[in-house]
Amino acid sequence: MTYDVVVVGGGAAGLTAGLSAARSGARVLILERGPRPGRKILVTGNGRCNLTNALADGIEHYRGAEPRFCFGALRRFPVADTLAFFAKLGVPSVDEGDGHYYPRSFSAADVADSLELAYREAGGEMVANARVAGLTPGPPWVVEGAGGRRWSARTVVLATGGRSAPKTGSDGDGFSLAGKLGHRVTPVAPAIVPLKIAGNLGHFLQGVKVTAVLRAPRSGLIAGPAELMFAHYGVSGPLALGLSVEIGLALADGPLDLELDLVPEMGREELSAFLQSRSEAHPRRELGNLLLGVLPRKVLPAVLRQQGIDPGKPVAVLTRETRERLVGLLNAYPLVCTGTLGWDEAAATLGGVDISEVEPKTLESRIHPGLFFAGEVLDVCGECGGFNLQWAWSSGYVAGLNAAGAD
Ligand SMILES: Cc1cc2nc3c(=O)[nH]c(=O)nc-3n(C[C@H](O)[C@H](O)[C@H](O)COP(=O)(O)OP(=O)(O)OC[C@H]3O[C@@H](n4cnc5c(N)ncnc54)[C@H](O)[C@@H]3O)c2cc1C
Questions:
Q1: Nearest 5 degrees, angle CA 352-CA 358-CA 360?
Q2: Is the beta carbon of 15 within 6 A of some atom in ligand 1?
Q3: Matching Gene3D superfamilies, A to Z (predicted)?
């Protein structure tokens, strides 16, 4: 029996592709290598699923060889349509007030389950534990499972994800399947990933969050103010994750010097005057308590100790020279980034199937008619905050419709 569409991979993009194809009347089969579809959706947004972002229609929030590539799919299935689509599936969304949308139930499982249910209700078929090992161009296409099973299809959607979080099923299979068909794959790197920092500041401040600005002077990178979280290995949180793509690329030239501005709302002179007035107001306080109410209380003592300054000294002994040194540290605390936590902890993939070989409006291969791509397998990497799922929904929707011949 020949299916109209076989979707390889039952993640966010594959489920959406399967659903849009099935709803347009096509006979669809999703082949998922894991025991159930949507395993990565379950871990998104710490189990709450930040399913899109108010800014996610803007191509400036996507990285890759050519961010304009995203325009066609994002315009065809924009944020407003995504919110309406999920509301119709029974999953209304809420904006947390900063443009980050979550399901009203704050349950990522509800998102995955609703997609799967709707797909099955539309007549879609699914085989789990079916790892695809080869694709032979059609028509009809022959899809070969790792165990020797074969399926035949008029068109194929490759939605295997990238290499991030391989425990959820995406370990780069899609790149080799596309490569074997003659598609170029650009170099891949972990993205949206925590950063390793030399020294033990992270150890002392483990779990502490600050609102800061992060700079990498060598590369001219700057991000924030946003939240940064210290961890035993280094730093995480939106600020570090947001810069991790660029930092990851810069790390190819060796460890990278970073500067952390812990009081970004004040420039050097303002901060110096502020410390001076605080010291005059509280001369008997310990130096480590000088910024109580401004920074989390563990931060200043740790910063001082790292620089060999005793935080237990009374503020009164703060010389002009020490104050200026302190200003320098608070405005530009030096950190050395030695690496990222790698694929296991990455939320996205930078690089992927070369988009110059894919038609942006339909997501069909320019090499093999009848082959479509969707999601993270393509060289498209969104920013942290709902952008990667938006790309998965939009590209999945477009690839599914076109694979079914319905757009
Ligand atoms: C911890 C974490 C948190 C995240 N949080 C967010 C968030 O809140 N908001 C956001 O926008 N993005 C988030 N992301 C990113 C987002 O989840 C992904 O970009 C998105 O899920 C990619 O969808 P996809 O369908 O392309 O790939 P995937 O979701 O990876 O799905 C690919 C599927 O293909 C299957 N597969 C792979 N190879 C084969 C094969 N050979 N045969 C058959 N099946 C195969 C896999 O098992 C998998 O089910 C997060 C990612 C992680 C890891």
A1: 110
A2: no
A3: FAD/NAD(P)-binding domain, HI0933 insert domain-like, Translation factors
Residue 260 has pLDDT above 90, yes or no: yes
Delimiting residues of CATH 3.50.50.60 domain(s) in the chain: 2-189+349-403
Phi-psi region of 148 (alpha: psi -120 to 50; beta: other; left: phi over 0): left
**Residues ≥6 apart with Cβ < 8 Å to 319:** none
The mean pLDDT value for 373-393 works out to: 97
What digits encode the pLDDT tens for the residues 132-157?
A: 999 999 899 999 999 899 999 999 99
Q: Which atom of ligand 1 is nearest to the CA of 45?
A: 8
Give the distance (Å) from ligand 1 centre to CA of residue 162: 7
Q: Quote the CA–CA distance of 45 and 111 in Å, as a whole number.
A: 12
More confident residue, 94 or 242: 94
Q: 40 C-alpha to center of ligand 1: Å?
A: 5
158 pLDDT exceeds 80? Answer: yes
Mean pLDDT of 263-269: 94
**C-alpha distances out from residue 45 to 49, 170, 192, 221, 386, Å:** 4, 18, 12, 25, 9
Tell me the CA–centroid distance for residue 338 and ligand 1, in Å: 27
Probe residue for ligand 1, chosen from 43, 116, 388 as the CB with the greatest number of ligand atoms within 8 Å: 388
pTM summary value: 0.93
User: Two tokens at 22?
Assistant: 């099935």
